[in-house]
Write a structure and sequence with these properties.
single chain; about 350 residues; alpha+beta; SH3 type barrels; Nucleotidyltransferase, domain 5; 60s Ribosomal Protein L30, Chain: A; five-stranded mixed beta sheet; 16 strands
């Protein structure tokens, strides 16, 4: 995310990736104003043409379409060339990476400004592809700030006679092609057993340059569960560094462990968490983004009070599969410095 400039309650910015568009979906809300260059159809005697113009919309809703790399912003036209548009009519912006827009709010919350800052910092993090494999199958995922994206899978022939010759190497070749198409900075090969070790030997023989970019990690699980095992247990922390997905997943895992333990210091549900905040007992406040958007004023105040009392706040995105655990607790929980009766 590139912040072009800020003036009063207006911020001009340029998203530079799919992840940045996802952050903007969480930041732009109903009632905000957004200004951007767009196209509108114009009917003329010679036919229909499309004309570029700058419009300002009052926002009704936003929709992030990660598969199309677009953020759809729907709203009512407040400003624009009146000879070309009707003020008060509806229009949609389709924002792509590297398109500049201006967001105007009555007041920017600390959470929203922090999210912009995090988006900027996280854009500098290494991009990671994880290949999880066992004897039967290899699956390739990329780690995004909003969760995992599956990039492909390949059945492996197992350990029969055919597999010991050209069959397994042909499968490995196709797995490698899927990995390379992701064009990431770092690669991880993970999974139980020895299949990952055999694949690493194949890389050493066939593509030693690629092998230098690959880390080998053992897991008990395969598939998506295997990737989250890696994240939860800190097996690639040196690569993930400040990853939002890692931060969210670990916070939920810690909250659940503390709740399950008789000696654990944790609570959940809005009323109980609010009471703990009042005592200054909250070390880490964990909030599902759905809960924040649904009760924005209330939850923002809880977050501000937590930080005033030297606690930390983590907002978990609904796209994170681990978020279901937090949703089952009412969408909000807290890890405590000490128990509150």
């Amino acid at each position: 995310m590139f912040i072009v400039k800020r003036r009063d309650n207006e911020i001009v910015l340029r998203p530079e990736s799919n992840e940045d568009l996802w952050h903007l979906e969480k930041i732009v809300k109903q009632g905000d104003k957004v200004r951007a260059i767009t196209e509108r159809k114009r009917e003329e005697a010679s036919g229909t043409t499309r004309e570029k113009m700058r419009l300002t919309l009052e926002i009704d809703k936003t929709e992030f379409h990660k598969g199309y790399r677009k953020l759809k912003i729907l709203g009512t036209i407040l400003e624009g060339p009146e000879d070309l548009v009707s003020l008060g009519s509806h229009h949609s912006f389709y924002i792509s990476p590297f398109e500049t827009l201006t967001i105007i709010k009555e007041k920017w919350s600390k959470h929203e400004l922090d999210r912009l800052k995090q988006a900027k910092e996280e854009s500098k993090q290494p991009k990671i592809t994880v290949t999880i494999m066992d004897e039967r199958k290899a699956e390739v995922f990329t780690i995004k700030q909003y969760g995992l994206e599956k990039k492909g899978e390949m059945s492996l022939p197992g350990r029969g006679k055919y597999a010991e010759t050209e069959g397994i190497e042909e499968s490995y070749k196709q797995v490698l092609q899927i990995m390379k198409r992701t064009e990431k900075d770092k690669y991880v090969v993970a999974g139980p057993g020895f299949e990952g070790d055999n694949f690493m030997k194949y890389l050493e023989k066939e593509d030693p340059k690629m092998k230098k970019k690959v880390s080998r990690v053992k897991t008990n699980n395969i598939g998506q569960n295997g990737v989250y095992e890696i994240i939860r247990e800190g097996k690639i922390d040196k690569i993930l560094l400040k990853s939002r997905l890692k931060r969210e997943t670990k916070a939920i895992d810690e909250l659940i462990r503390q709740i399950a333990s008789e000696e654990g210091n944790a609570t959940y549900g809005r009323d109980e968490v609010e009471k703990a905040i009042g005592y200054g007992a909250v070390e880490k406040l964990v909030v599902l983004d759905e809960e924040l958007f649904k009760n924005e004023e209330k939850v923002n105040k809880m977050m501000e009070k937590t930080e005033q009392k030297k606690g930390k706040t983590i907002v978990v995105s609904k796209e994170n599969p681990e978020s279901q655990k937090l949703r089952s607790l009412g969408g909000i929980g807290a890890i405590l410095r000490y128990k509150v009766n």
